[in-house]
Write a structure and sequence with these properties.
By secondary structure, the protein is mainly alpha-helical. The chain has a domain of 249 residues. The protein has 19 helices and ten strands. The strands form four sheets. A three-stranded antiparallel β-sheet has the order 3-2-6. The chain has a three-stranded mixed β-sheet with strand order 8-10-9. Strands 1-7 form a two-stranded parallel ribbon. The longest helix has 41 residues. The radius of gyration is 26 Å and the shape is globular. The termini are far apart.
């Protein structure tokens, strides 16, 4: 076969465009089928006052036809693109690949989706009966079950399109007569990309070899998953495949390959667990920095507003939130009559323009979270003095200026992480003999080190921004070390936004506690939270990991403080899109105790 020239940027864009167009078709058909099936399920329960899942027979037949036709269209389109690129005829090979994939995958996928749907409905019925709900009410809940939500249809459409595309490319490439065939992993290089997939970008292996993908596991650490191609569900599992936008570039080693993988402009939202109830595409806020808690704007993309304008907007939002606050929860053993309600601490007048812009964006996202959980919005911002960085009580969020404010130059201190680790080991003997990686530094703020004292002799200097603030460990870029002493401004600004967002989401987790009546001493839900926390702490897995200096109480060591902080830390990571590090026990509690209480 003759040598050709391939542009990575062009190839990735072609595959991404094809993927988006093809997934739209399946998305629309699946949503329509879900809507039809939800009505059938509701009618079945109303008729029999029990569920025999007759409706799943029709669903399985319809979904099988939809998937089969979709797989055929996807593999044909992706195969034709590859054949055209090589200027070779191999149409018959496409038909073979289509038949094989439909035979091997379709029935299994239909069974998986049907079984997940059945389990979700079974839980809904069980809860309805336990709560003493009427047959019509339970039937309505079945129709509105998460199994039939649009976000699930979208996730299925994207995942199945992506997997079928990459399978088709893999099969067709084997028939193109390469002399020395190779394949290259091309990642979607933006802030929504899994960190371990970002690390795979540019990895080249022989055609008959497998990509070795170091995949995180619950409790810390990684396991090697060997994948034939991006989107290889059979070998990579859900954590590597769901909502993935990576593609595999296939070529002959003699080909000339140029360019780099571009940052895609696509509407794909951050990954969510299979049964995550968060609605896809929450409408963006109105303003110069549109954002939502499902499509969070990055710090480097912010338009920095005038300080006076930001202050005005923040105060207006807080005042409006106070006027609409739900005082019916006053009997929940919490001081909902906080004297700071409806007010904003004068301390924020000292914040920089960037800090105020970031805070304004965070408030928009917290308002959206409040609406989703059907609780009152944050109605006050006060200052925190002494120990602690932030707090929450009665819908009023406290912020410590020295932690939240980056300083007038809007930068973090540029430093080498090696110094931070060396300083940690030197001053804390318990760490001296441990293999410390960056993720272990979540509680160790550089503000407490000699490095801080040496470079910040006065508070005045500190307030000028000469401090590297402690960002949640899971929000620190994995490749930060490559920048050495000079970290790019856009990376620093992304970390600045991530810090404020993760802290605020953590405090909002406490607001969820208080509003959903999970903090009362006589609350059954609070006792169950404690039970789940103890279960996580005392598990054999946890004890084994602690012996290695790790923890399954993700996402940080602060998660081990107590059950409430465990909830808040996991809540923050969950809504930051970092579901790979959320504690499994927390997720179980969230689904069984928090979501059912959203009323």
């Amino acid at each position: 076969m003759s040598k050709i020239r391939i542009n990575r940027r062009k190839d990735y864009k072609e595959q991404l465009k094809l993927y988006l167009n093809l997934s739209k078709s399946l998305n629309a058909k699946t949503k329509k089928l879900f809507k039809k099936t939800a009505r059938q399920a509701e009618k079945e329960y109303l008729k029999y006052e029990d569920m025999y899942y007759f409706f799943l027979e029709d669903f399985s037949n319809d979904f099988y036809k939809i998937l089969s036709n979709h797989y055929r269209a996807v593999i044909t389109a992706s195969g034709e693109r590859l054949i055209k690129q090589r200027e070779k005829k191999a149409e018959s090979e496409i038909d073979i690949a289509v038949a094989k994939y439909i035979n091997d995958v379709t029935a299994t996928k239909v069974t998986e989706v049907s079984e997940t749907t059945k389990q979700s409905i079974r839980r809904s019925i069980k809860k309805g009966i336990a709560d003493g709900q009427s047959i019509p009410t339970i039937s309505k809940d079945i129709r509105q079950n998460n199994a039939f939500k649009p976000y699930r249809a979208t996730m299925i459409a994207r995942t199945e399109t992506h997997s079928a595309m990459n399978y088709g490319n893999d099969e067709i490439s084997k028939t193109l007569g390469f002399k020395d065939p190779v394949k290259e992993w091309n990642s979607a290089l933006d802030d929504r990309t899994r960190q371990w997939h970002r690390a795979m970008n540019g990895t080249v292996v022989k055609q008959d070899e497998m990509f070795k993908v170091m995949t995180p596991i619950a409790g810390g650490g990684f396991t090697e998953r060997r994948m034939n191609y991006t989107g290889d569900y059979q070998n990579g599992g859900a954590l590597n495949v769901i909502n993935c936008r990576c593609f595999t570039l296939r070529y002959d080693s003699e080909d000339e390959v140029i360019g780099a993988t571009p940052k895609p402009v696509s509407p794909v939202v951050p990954e969510v667990p299979t049964e995550n109830p968060i609605p896809e595409g929450t409408p963006l806020s109105i303003g110069v920095n549109p954002t939502s808690f499902t499509a969070r704007i990055a710090g480097s993309k912010l338009v920095i507003e005038d300080k006076k304008q930001s202050l005005k907007e923040i105060k207006t939002k807080i005042k409006n939130n106070e006027e609409n606050f739900d005082y019916n929860r006053m009997d929940n053993k919490w001081n909902w009559l906080d004297k700071n309600s409806g007010k904003v601490t004068p301390q924020i007048n000292k914040y920089s323009a960037r800090d105020l812009t970031e805070l304004n964006v965070v408030i928009d996202e917290l308002d959206q979270l409040a609406d989703f959980y059907k609780i009152s919005r944050i109605r006050g911002i006060t200052s925190v003095r002494g120990n602690g960085t932030a707090n929450m009580g009665g819908g009023v969020m406290g912020i410590k200026k020295d932690y939240y404010d980056n300083g007038e130059d809007t930068k973090f201190l540029m430093y080498k992480k090696k110094f931070m680790i060396d300083d940690l080991k030197k001053n804390h003997t318990e760490w001296a003999n441990q293999n410390v990686d960056f993720a272990e530094l979540s509680k160790y703020k550089i503000g407490k080190t000699k490095f801080y004292s040496k470079n910040n002799p006065s508070k005045r200097e500190r307030n000028k921004g000469k401090v590297y603030h402690g960002v949640s460990d899971y929000e620190i870029p994995a490749d930060l070390d490559k920048y050495g002493d000079v970290i790019p401004e856009n990376i620093l600004n992304d970390m600045s936004m991530a810090q404020k967002r993760s802290v605020s989401y953590h405090e909002f987790g406490h607001h969820v506690h208080q509003s959903l009546e999970t903090t009362g001493l006589d609350s059954v839900t609070e006792q169950k939270l404690a039970d789940f926390y103890v279960k996580a702490v005392n598990s054999k897995k946890q004890r084994d990991l602690l012996a290695q200096g790790k923890t399954s109480l993700y996402p940080s060591r602060y998660s081990q403080a107590n059950s409430k902080e465990w909830f808040a830390e996991n809540f923050s990571a969950y809504h930051m899109g970092r579901n790979d590090i959320v504690s499994p026990e927390w997720l179980e509690f969230y689904k069984t105790e928090i979501l059912p209480n959203i009323k």
